[in-house]
Amino acid sequence: MTLVTAVLAFSPEIVLLLAGVGVLLFDAIWPGRGRVERWITLVSMGLAAGCAFLVSQQPALYGTYFSGALRVDGTMTFARLLFMAAGSLVVLSSWATQGEGDTAEYYGLLLLSFLGEAVIVSSQTLLVLFIGIELLALPCYALMAIRKHHAGAVRAALKYFLLGMFASIVMLYGVALTFGALHTIGYANGLFPAPATLGAARVAVAMIAFLFMFVGLGFKVTAFPFHFWSPDVYATGSTPIVAYVATVPKVAVMLALWRMLGPGFGAAYPLGQAFIAIVAVASMVYGNVVALLQDDVRRMLAYSGVANTGYMLMAFVAGGAASGSALAFFLVVYVFGNLGAFLVVMALGVDKPVSMKEFSGLGARNGLVAAAMAACLFSLAGTPPLGGFFGKFALFKAAVDGGFAWLALIALITTVVSVGYYLKIASQMYGNIVAPDEGDAAGSAVPSGRLKVAPALTAAIAICALAALVLGAVGVRFLA
Amino acid sequence: MKGTPVLSLLILVPLLSSVVVLLLPAAQERLIKWLTVAAAAGAFVWSLVIAANFTVGSSAMQMVQSVPWVPTIGMAYKVGIDGLSLPLILLTTLLCLLSAIYTLRLTKQVKVFCFLLLLLEVGMIGVFLALDAVLFYVFWELVLVPMFFMIGIWGGDNRRYASVKFFIYTLVGSVVMLLGLLLLYFWGPKTFDMQAIIAWGQAGKFSLQQQYWIFGALFLGFAVKVPIFPFHTWLPDAHVEAPTVGSVLLAGVLLKMGGYGLLRVSLAALPQAFTAFSPYLAALGVIGIVYGSAVALTQRDLKKMVAYSSVSHMGFVVLGIAAANAGGIDGAAMQMFTHGIITGMLFFLVGMVYERYHTKEIAKLRGVIAAIPALGVLFTFASFASLGLPGLAGFVGEFNSLLGGLQAFPLTTAFAVIGIVLTAAYFLRTMQAVVFAPAEEGSAVYDGPSKMAGTELTAVVPLAVLTLAIGLYPAPFFAVVDPVARALASLVVR
Fold first, then answer.
1. At residue A2, what are phi and psi to the nearest 5 degrees?
2. How many inter-chain contacts (A to B, CB under 8 Å) are there?
3. Is the ipTM of this complex over 0.90?
4. Domain boundaries, chain B
5. Which of A434, A471, A474 to mutate to test the interface with B (most CBs of B within 10 A)?
6. Mean pLDDT for the stretch of residues A49-77
7. Which residue of A has its CA nearest to B68?
8. Three-state SS for A255?
């Protein structure tokens, strides 16, 4: 490995770093030119995606770098492209709203947060992973607070920060224990070796270490019972940031967890497997049932996120290569479905809570946005032929094939439950075209009139919905 | 890719037309309406071409086309046609064409309606052609959405309640049905290919326990759609509120999806569970026959009466299917087809009566034949066909279903006779009052032209002709269905 190959292999991240710093510097020199900063951000993301593609075309660049601390491989390319796609959608969505003096910070921090995600996915040792998580979390804390004139944003940021730090510390403790148990923190070939090579005592410590790390990472991916910050943060934060935080970082951490545990962890460590299974079931059941009870749509999406984490964790329980590709496909579907849903919420109000009622008659008030929301929701619900169906189906199949039919059955039943709350929004959007609530008391917040949505935001929403459709029709072919 | 795209074209014509309709400006109402008619006519003509090329006398799937969709999990775009689905396809394209012609009279939100009509046609054709369980489910759900909007936007005063009730009932049914389809996959050959699943089931590779579970899940989805008593309560509400075209297609085609599913999936893939459950199914069918006709007798609303007559007539379908002998299945298939054309005709006629008198109350409708002779004659004809007068199509299906039922479950079937008497009673009573009785004090008044419009006649007369033709000479129909019916009947060993 020479410096040149390293620079080439990490060219996407270098582009993002330069762009992030560049946006901040640009604003320092020529303040108040949000338009230019937006374009710099968008173009640099496109450039980074292009670099990622070029890297993937050069097999020589795949490998480990920096004494085996970071790895560039297919997973990395997958993550880079997915993150850039999601990132550009976030940029597009905030095209109209970020013009209030904090534009440069907003885009700068967004760009820098991608470095954290890249490190998380790329890292091969626990300490680098920890650094990656912090590198991601710090810009996200700041982003959460960036609309500082809005009290909710500050509250959300503080909660996000405190609990995020707490989670990091728990994880770090697990890292320390891991080193004690395994005498290594590298996970180039999976973190946990075959139990037979460790001996009973070290296996016990390793399991305790695993629990600590899993709890720490569980916070980041909002797995029950470590999810409790997410409904509050999602419901009070600024929606574009919430949309971002709810999707991309979760995907990054999931991918890192997969690298760490790998396809064989469950079979080798039944105790760890049981623990993940319990968390998965609890997340699916709790997330879906509680989401049913929500009126605030962002809160509902937070709980739906908990449930989706549960589905993702099924891959870790089942293990095997098929689980890995199922997980990857599900993550893509989840990103676009969830992002799309959040962006539609944003179309109804950036900083304010959006209740179910505000979706009333959306089908008539803005047909395109309503149809896109329906597509995203039904993809999340797992309705064929949308992408979500195939994502869930692949996970269920992996679970059944791995001998966890009962887990798939629970997932299936909770999926049926989830249809309830996705349908609640759909029925608000379309039920009221059917017959507007004429008898509603005066002053009730039933909106009427055409809903105007900024073109860039509309485009971002439409792309998410289109992705849900295309992933169903064509994307499933990549499901190996 | 395997096979020819003959059948796919039938799906593509309305699908592409619906996209074109969506892209046209809403102000171009004439163009949109005529485009819809042209698309529906194209689909109908193409279905006739398919029928002409169909090999009669074979129970095999024909014109099969298969395109891999997700090969790793055994999912494909696969369509095919056999003697069971061919009549239903012809029924669908015919009723859609007539509905499109009737839609020429529509004035409210024409563009959306035409779009939904074509989309509905795509879904309905797809359900009857699909040979992949996921594809089947996709089309099954696709049907739900346009019908929901048709009832919801163009429906009567209580449309919101009716449309939401329709949606929830059928959605719950179909979600549970999806569970059944997934169980077929996981316990079965790990492919969604329905032919492979059916082969698996007929080889006895599903254990009896597995069959019961899958049968139960599928049954709920199909039973809601048929509807089988006691899952029928959404139907009268939906029909009363639905616009005329919605009612025609709901009764004419949508209800048949349930019966089709019972034969195509439940009976074919789960013969033992079907056999074990068939006495109860027959009982539910007979209850539907008697209950539907008894409730129809008490209705004051003309449309609701026809809706309950549907419950009763679909009871014959259920009875024939449950009998599961060649005669019963022949009868059920025939009854599905004839109920489609006769009840479709009745709903068209009720719609025409309503447009003129602005009421559907039987007590207020008098002397239709004096005011609009053609309408009166057609209404009389349709009523006689519906009550099962020999020589008209309705008789053939009912008679064969009953015959099949008597062979398999003589005691249960005997009770169905009550339903036949009641059916005659409510149709004769209604006909006497609405069509022939002289106007009384307080009855609705109509003083418009005494002729029917061209679009109205075009929508109804073909159905009347077909009713007479099948009634007099049903042999060609049975020649198409019988091989499949015999193959299915041979699976059931009592």
1. -105, 170
2. 56
3. no
4. 6-489
5. A434
6. 91
7. A477
8. helix
Q: Alpha-carbon distance B411 to B194, whole Å?
A: 35
- Measured CB to CB, residues of chain B less than 8 Å from chain A are 69-70, 72-73, 75, 134, 137-138, 141, 148-149, 152-153, 155, 159-160, 163-164, 167, 171, 175-176, 179, 182, 186
Q: Collapsing DSSP states into helix, strand and coil, what is residue B269?
A: helix
Residue A430 C-alpha, separation from nearest chain B C-alpha, in angstroms: 8
Paired strand residues for B130? B79
What pTM does this model have? 0.86
Contacts of A416 in chain B (CB under 8 A): 175-176, 179
Q: Which helix (H) or strand (E) holds B240?
A: helix B234-241
Q: How far apart are CA B273 and CA B207, in angstroms?
A: 10
**Three-state DSSP class for residue A127:** helix
Domain ranges of chain A: 1-123, 124-434+449-478
Q: ∠ at Cα B191 (B187, B195), nearest 5°?
A: 100
Dihedral pair phi/psi, residue A461, rounded to 5°: -65, -45
- For residues A43 and A84, the answer to whether their CB atoms sit within 8 Å is no
pLDDT in tens, chain B (494 residues): 567 788 899 999 999 999 999 888 888 888 999 999 999 999 999 999 999 988 888 888 888 898 888 887 888 899 999 999 999 999 999 999 999 999 888 888 888 899 999 999 999 999 999 999 999 999 998 998 889 888 888 888 888 888 888 888 888 888 889 889 999 998 988 899 999 999 999 998 899 999 999 999 999 999 999 889 889 899 998 988 889 899 999 999 999 999 999 999 999 999 999 999 999 999 999 999 999 999 999 998 999 999 999 999 999 999 999 998 999 999 999 999 999 999 999 999 999 999 888 888 888 888 888 888 899 999 999 999 998 888 898 899 999 999 999 999 999 999 998 999 999 999 999 988 888 888 887 788 887 788 888 888 988 999 999 999 999 999 999 999 999 999 999 988 87
Structure tokens belonging to residue B278 = 């068939």
Say how many residues make up chain B: 494
Q: Cβ(B107)–Cβ(B141) under 8 Å?
A: no
Taking an 8 Å cut-off on Cβ atoms, the answer to whether A434 and B159 are in contact is yes
Cα B264 from chain centroid (whole Å):
15
Tell me the angle at which helices A455-473 and A387-401 cross, rounded to the nearest 10 degrees.
40
- According to DSSP, the residues that pair with A70 across neighbouring strands are A65, A123
User: How many angstroms separate the CA atoms of B317 and B336, rounded?
Assistant: 7
Q: Hey, are the CB atoms on B70 and A477 less than 8 Å from each other?
A: yes
| B270 to chain A, closest Cα gap in Å | 21
Helices B6-23 and B29-52: angle between axes, nearest 10 degrees:
180
**Token pair 């992408």 in the structure block, residue:** A387
Q: Where are the beta strands (DSSP E) in B75-135?
A: 75-81
Which residue has 């989670």 as its token pair? A167
- Give the residue among A42, A122, A53, A146 at the shortest CA–CA distance from A88: A42
